[in-house]
Each structure stands twice: as structure tokens, then as C-alpha cells.
């Protein structure tokens, strides 16, 4: 989120800079308008794409553990402790940003609600194909959507009324309200960025130039200029409408009298777009990954859990620092493709010493897109583990020994289902007395292989939570891991590797 705001803000800053340098004094009003709009869209959309010039960076090599992940079994107290909320500067800044955003959004909605309510309860007059609403002095004259709010208390000659009408009708025909709505929404999102206010003012100014140009075609420069000077003393600001009294009178009069810009200068818009896109792409290539790591560091360094889950998606690793999604993901083991374990010295350096082990999960292609969207809001770093390289390593290992399958057509299963297995484990496994006395809790990840005869073998604990808990898991496992229905792959009985999380809770 923060990195997106940075990249988008940079694009808006570049757009504002190039507008004031190359486009502000040009008389290509319509082209300037579209230059601003397209530039804004580019600034918003391009940062959403993965870094065009990036490469997948392999920071750490892990022990490969492609497995079927079994549901967790809890030994001891069945209640699950809530994770304490970890606050950091990034959390605080995001909170302030969100509060201001909500306040501005409410104000925007209220402004529009008042105008819509005024439209609904006041008489509408069809005048030469346009819809007028008399404001009786409650609002100045301005265009809003397809309506012209007309202040019928202002003393104007018929000629002046015609000029103002042509001006406001141009706003409606050119759909300027859509531009304004877009900019108002962007001002809510990027309320902290000065460039967005400059761009908004620039776009409104181009709207006025276009409307002035159209209205001035029916009269002479002098009379129209006099009308604008007069309107200066009646200026009332409206965020969501186009008022004839929009306070750029001096520049508008100057632009009416300005000689038309040479046509060859139209290419300046292409130059602006090329610089804008290049700036965003270059910034992505140079700092996106580095910024994300720095942003994540403040949260990762504060993690106090002994195990941390990471989710590998689209070439990045997203860290579940508060275990928000781990239970949901573990409850659907069929979605998992690989589990990669990092222990000891292989734990990434951005974690503190309290983190003893890291599990990086990668998913199958059909993972729920809504879940992926949620996971991508987690703090992330560059790719921790290269799946392709580990697959080659596994293939070499398989050539030297009996192959152990991880993905099979018919996985190994326990007679009576997992609930029956966990019932048997619960009857056999005891919470170590010494661990109880010392208040030791933790989660043990027990790896084992179900052989062709349905019996467990190669038992080992993947994480070193505490020797007392590990010993109990290794004591019980050989006793209960018997009588499985072995895995079947392509009509052949095969071995399969499994991992069972065992949570010891007091």
C-alpha cells in the first residue's frame, strides 16, 4: 500500500512539473485536458503492475519440504490465544492517513448529497436542450453533471445571460463533471500530496479556457472580458461544480487574447507521457523492492513469535507477522504446493533472535483470488526461495533413493478420517510435566513419511521449539502412525511425505 502511494505520488509530481513547464501556456486546451487525464491514469495504473524491469531475487536458500500439510492438533488447553497487536510507525502513519481519508470522503459525499437533494426538490426548466434549476440566491451559477444551477437573483443583461449560458453548457457537453469527480476522489486518496492540488487546479483551468473559448465565439473579447471581471466580485467556491466565477479571471482573459500556439508543439504531450512512464518504471526498478523490505523491516523486526509464516506469491514473500491467515490456510491443505523451512542461520536477517523458524508456503494455481488479495496486503520482501532450483535438487535426491511423492492422485489417508487419528493421538500424547511446570508452550512441526505398507517412518521435528515438546511428539508418532491407507499415484502404491502441526497449549 505504502509503496503504491509512493510510486503514484512520484508520477503525479512528474505530471505536475511537466504541465507547468511545457503545457500551461499553450492554447491546445482540449489536448492539455486529455494530457492531464491520461497522465493521472498512467500514474495510478502503472504502479499496479509488477516491476517491468525487475528480476526475481533469491535472498535465501532453504531446506525444501514439498509436503501435504495436515490440519493442526492441539495438546492441552483448547483455547487459542489472541496475538497481541504489533504497532509500529508504519501502522501509526497508515492510521492517520485512513482517518483523514475517511473524513474527506464523508465531506465529499455530503456535498454531493446536498446538491442532489436540491435538484430533487426544486423545479427544473428545460431551456434550449439544457436543464436549468433556479437557485434563488442559495447557490451561484454553475454546471453540475447535466444540470445548470442558475442564480436568478443576479442582475444580468440578456447578452450576459447568453454568454454565461454558453459557458456553462460547454462544461456539460464536454463532460467536465466526470473530470472533476475523478480529481475529487484522487484528492481524497492523495490528500497529503501537493501535486494533486496543482493538477486539479490545472485541469479546472483548462475547463474554463475551453468554456471561455466557446462562449467568446458569440461576442467580442472586450464584452466577455468585462463580464469575467464583474464576476470576480461574486466568486463563490464549489468543489464539485463548474462556476462561471472560477477565480482564474486574469489568466483566462490573457488566454483569450493570446495568439494560437504553433501546431508542431502538440508533440510535447507525447514527450510528457514518455517521461512520465519512464520515471515510474525506473523508480520501480530501482527502489520498489528495497522500499518494500524497509517497510517490512519495521514490522518483521518486532515479531516475537518463534515461528513465522510466509506466503510465496508472484515472486515475492508475504509475511504473516500476526498469524492472521495461518489457521485459514492450514485448514485447506489441498491448496498448498510446497512448504519450505528455514531454521537457525537460514532465518532471514530482518527477523530478531526470538524467531527460531520460518515456514514459507507456496500455493497451487487455483488459490482463492480473494485470499491472494488479502495476503498481498501483508508486509513483503523479495523472493525467499526459488522453487525451480529446489525442484532440480529434489530430482537429484530422488535418483539416489526411493522416491517419496508429495503430489499424488490419491493421498495417504487414515482409516476413519483425521478425526479418528487425532483422537488416538490425544489418548496417547501427554503434555510433558516439566514443560507444564516451566510454562513452556509451542508448536511442533512433525514430518514423517507413510510408506507403501501404510506405516510411518523417517520421523523428525522440523522446528526446535523446545526439546521437551519435540521428544513427546517423536515418542508418540511411531506408536500411532500405523495402519494408514498408502498413497496411490498412477495406479502404483507410493510413499508420501506429510507434516503434522502439533500445538502444545497450557
TrEMBL record:
**Coiled-coil positions:** none
Q: A Pfam family matched by this chain, by name? A: TonB_C
Q: Which residues form the TonB C-terminal domain?
A: 416-506
Q: Which InterPro entries match?
A: Peptidase_M56 (IPR008756), TonB-dependent_transducer (IPR051045), TonB/TolA_C (IPR006260), TonB_C (IPR037682)
GO CC terms: plasma membrane protein complex
Q: How does it sit in the membrane?
A: Single-pass membrane protein
A GO molecular function assigned to this protein is:
energy transducer activity
Instruction: Give a yes or no for keyword Nucleus in this entry.
Output: no
Q: Give TM regions.
A: 6-22, 34-55, 92-110, 267-285
What the record says about family reads: Belongs to the TonB family.
Which NCBIfam families has this protein been placed in?
tonB_Cterm
From the Swiss-Prot or TrEMBL record, give the protein name. Answer: M56 family metallopeptidase
Amino acid at each position: 500500500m505504502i509503496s503504491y502511494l509512493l510510486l503514484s505520488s512520484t508520477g503525479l509530481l512528474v505530471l505536475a512539473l511537466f504541465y507547468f513547464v511545457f503545457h500551461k501556456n499553450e492554447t491546445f486546451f482540449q489536448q492539455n485536458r486529455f494530457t492531464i487525464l491520461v497522465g493521472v491514469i498512467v500514474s495510478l495504473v502503472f504502479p499496479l503492475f509488477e516491476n517491468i524491469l525487475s528480476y526475481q531475487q533469491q535472498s535465501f536458500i532453504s531446506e525444501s519440504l514439498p509436503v501435504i500439510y495436515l490440519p493442526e492438533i492441539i495438546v492441552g488447553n483448547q483455547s487459542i490465544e489472541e496475538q497481541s497487536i504489533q504497532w509500529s510507525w508504519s501502522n501509526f502513519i497508515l492510521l492517520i492517513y485512513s482517518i483523514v481519508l475517511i473524513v474527506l470522503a464523508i465531506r465529499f459525499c455530503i456535498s454531493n448529497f446536498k446538491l442532489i437533494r436540491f435538484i430533487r426538490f426544486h423545479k427544473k426548466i428545460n431551456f434550449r436542450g439544457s436543464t436549468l434549476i433556479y437557485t434563488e440566491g442559495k447557490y451561484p451559477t454553475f454546471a453540475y453533471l447535466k444540470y445548470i444551477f442558475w442564480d436568478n437573483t443576479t442582475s444580468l443583461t440578456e447578452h450576459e445571460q447568453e454568454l454565461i449560458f454558453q459557458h456553462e453548457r460547454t462544461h456539460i457537453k464536454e463532460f467536465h463533471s466526470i473530470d472533476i469527480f475523478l480529481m475529487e476522489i484522487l484528492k481524497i486518496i492523495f490528500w497529503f500530496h501537493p501535486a494533486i492540488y496543482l493538477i486539479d487546479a490545472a485541469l479546472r483551468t483548462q475547463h474554463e479556457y475551453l468554456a471561455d473559448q466557446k462562449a467568446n465565439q458569440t461576442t467580442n473579447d472586450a464584452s466577455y472580458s468585462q463580464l469575467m471581471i464583474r464576476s470576480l466580485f461574486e466568486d463563490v467556491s464549489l468543489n464539485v461544480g463548474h462556476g462561471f466565477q472560477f477565480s482564474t479571471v486574469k489568466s483566462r482573459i490573457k488566454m483569450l487574447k493570446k495568439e494560437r500556439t504553433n501546431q508542431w508543439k502538440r508533440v510535447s504531450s507525447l514527450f510528457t507521457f514518455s517521461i512520465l512512464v519512464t520515471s515510474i518504471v525506473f523508480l520501480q526498478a530501482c527502489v520498489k523492492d528495497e522500499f518494500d523490505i524497509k517497510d517490512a523491516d519495521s514490522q518483521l523486526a518486532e515479531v516475537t513469535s518463534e515461528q513465522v509464516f510466509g506466503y510465496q506469491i508472484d515472486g515475492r514473500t508475504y509475511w504473516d507477522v500476526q498469524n492472521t491467515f495461518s489457521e485459514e490456510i492450514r485448514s485447506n491443505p489441498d491448496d498448498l504446493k510446497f512448504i519450505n523451512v528455514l531454521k537457525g542461520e537460514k532465518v532471514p536477517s530482518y527477523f530478531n533472535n526470538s524467531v527460531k523458524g520460518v515456514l514459507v508456503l507456496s500455493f497451487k494455481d487455483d488459490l482463492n483470488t480473494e485470499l491472494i488479495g488479502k495476503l498481498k496486503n501483508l508486509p513483503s520482501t523479495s523472493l525467499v526461495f526459488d522453487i525451480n532450483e529446489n525442484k532440480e535438487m529434489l530430482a537429484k535426491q530422488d535418483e539416489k533413493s526411493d522416491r517419496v511423492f508429495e503430489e499424488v492422485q490419491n493421498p495417504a489417508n487414515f482409516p476413519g478420517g483425521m478425526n479418528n487419528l487425532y483422537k488416538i493421538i490425544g489418548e496417547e500424547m501427554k503434555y510433558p510435566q516439566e514443560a507444564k511446570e516451566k510454562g513452556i508452550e509451542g508448536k511442533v512441526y512433525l514430518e514423517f513419511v507413510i510408506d507403501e505398507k501404510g506405516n510411518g517412518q523417517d520421523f523428525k521435528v522440523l522446528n526446535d521449539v523446545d526439546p521437551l515438546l519435540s521428544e513427546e511428539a517423536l515418542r508418540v508418532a511411531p506408536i500411532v502412525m500405523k495402519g494408514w491407507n498408502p498413497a496411490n499415484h498412477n495406479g502404483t502404491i507410493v510413499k508420501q511425505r506429510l507434516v503434522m502441526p502439533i500445538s502444545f497449549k497450557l
